[in-house]
Design goal:
The chain is mostly helical. The N terminus is likely disordered. It is globular, with a radius of gyration of 23 Å. It contains 19 helices and no strands. Among the domains are: 34 residues; 162 residues, no CATH class. This is Ligase. Keywords: Ligase, Membrane, Transmembrane, Transmembrane helix. Its main location: membrane.
């Protein structure tokens, strides 16, 4: 008896060591997800131990996994950005700086490979949800006392739309809250169906908190545009047509109610028209009006180099050149390095070739999440939200939305492919 126990103990120790070997990289990814809503520096430094831990995993099939479209297309966009530096007319520091935001896409194949083999993806989702919930609580506190904000110059700023910012900015905060709120619908419905009412109520309370914060504290116009569409996606995919119609009616009534009771929501929506009038009539810089000017100029830049674009990092120089030809006009003489549209940003730098790679990347990642399950639901939401928000921003290249995409697609994609196989 004693000898048998002693013989089995080394095997147990070996199993524990191997389990720890695979859990450690997942814990570092969870740490990245935990830090992402709060700090860019912390997120960047957290990548280092994860990459070291990843290097110690079993990687015999890793080269072959890179040949799949879901992994190959992010690599292709990075390669195109690197090669695009060769024909860019921008100074080399600007070319190198411009490729930085694209490099994060290289992490997607690594995450897919890791979480396709080791089932610890829920740790990452739980860490991100917990971190965003804490941001939400801080945001409510900041709405009461702006001195609690980590971004005092925003919460005390002249625009009420920017009050209640815990950290970062109101666009990132709203995108995170919207993603978490809609992502929670799937587990809430599933838990209610299984009779696990208490946990479902807790998650429903968290989701409600995110939505209440967006409606009464701070919300971006990008989130207001994407949130209803994400709700429609859930209804179409997971509800029968009668239930979907009832849900649509309930959402319409809720929207009317919120419009009536939330002055903050009315002010945010009114800024669409206000910005347009400021830009068109007064020729002044504004959010939406400036975007329209960026898009107009970007289309002209694309027409000058439609196939391969003007090269990596060329956007700022192009806007500077266009501004030099304009008389004193605050709106038309703006010099920016971001046209606030993902497609235009790619097309200006890498032409039609770049746009085809970008759209193929989005499409391949969408197809990865065709099945049922929490991982597929989260992955689908991440891709759809990124595509929609990229109509008004460059959210694939921006730090927080871009890393949210990388983590969401990488972790959920690995889990989805694991179930498929």
């Amino acid at each position: 008896m004693g000898g048998g126990a002693d013989e089995g103990r080394p095997a147990t120790w070996v199993s524990a060591i191997w389990a720890a070997r695979y859990r450690t990289p997942a814990r570092f990814v969870a740490l990245i997800a935990l830090l992402l809503p709060w700090t860019t520096t912390g997120t960047t430094f957290a990548l280092i131990p994860w990459l070291i831990a990843f290097a110690f995993l079993d990687l015999p099939d890793f080269p072959r996994s890179l040949l799949r479209p879901v992994s190959l297309l992010p690599i292709a966009l990075v390669v195109l950005a690197a090669v695009g530096m060769l024909w860019s007319g921008a100074p080399w520091p600007e070319r190198i700086h411009a490729i930085g935001p694209v490099l994060k896409l290289l992490v997607i194949p690594l995450l897919i490979y890791q979480f396709e083999r080791w089932p610890y993806g829920l740790w990452v989702f739980a860490a991100f949800l917990a971190s965003c919930a804490l941001v939400m609580l801080v945001s409510f506190a900041v709405a009461v006392d702006p001195d609690l904000s980590l971004k005092l110059y925003l919460s005390r700023g002249p625009y009420k739309v920017e009050s209640g910012i815990a950290v970062r900015n109101y666009i990132d905060q709203s995108q995170e809250f919207a993603l978490c709120a809609i992502a929670l619908i799937y587990p809430i419905v599933t838990l209610f169906r299984k009779g696990r009412v208490r946990i479902a109520i807790v998650l429903a309370a968290i989701a409600t908190g995110f939505l209440v914060n967006m409606m009464f504290v701070v919300v971006s116009r990008t989130a207001l545009v994407t949130l209803p569409i994400l709700l429609v996606v859930f209804a179409l995919l997971h509800l029968r047509w009668r239930a979907a119609l009832l849900a649509a009616g309930a959402m319409a009534l809720l929207a009317v109610f919120l419009w009536a009771v939330s002055p903050h929501l009315r002010v945010t929506v009114a800024k669409f028209q206000g910005d347009y009038e400021i830009s068109v009539e007064d020729k002044q810089v504004s959010g939406m009006g400036s975007r329209l000017e960026y898009w107009r100029k970007s289309l002209g830049f694309i027409a000058d180099a439609p196939l391969l674009g003007h090269g990596t990092g060329s956007i700022r120089a192009l806007f500077a050149s266009a501004a030099a030809d304009v008389e004193v006009d605050p709106l038309r003489s703006e010099i920016v390095s971001n046209p606030h549209n993902q497609t235009l940003s790619v097309a200006v730098q890498w032409g039609v070739v770049g746009v085809l790679v970008l759209y193929a990347l989005w499409f391949a990642h969408l197809l990865m999440f065709r099945r049922e399950g929490l991982a597929c639901w989260i992955g689908l939401l991440v891709v759809v939200q990124n595509m929609l928000s990229s109509l008004l921003n460059t959210h694939l290249f921006d730090f927080t939305p871009g890393w949210t995409y990388v983590l969401g697609v990488g972790v959920a994609g690995g889990m989805a492919l694991a179930k498929k196989s």
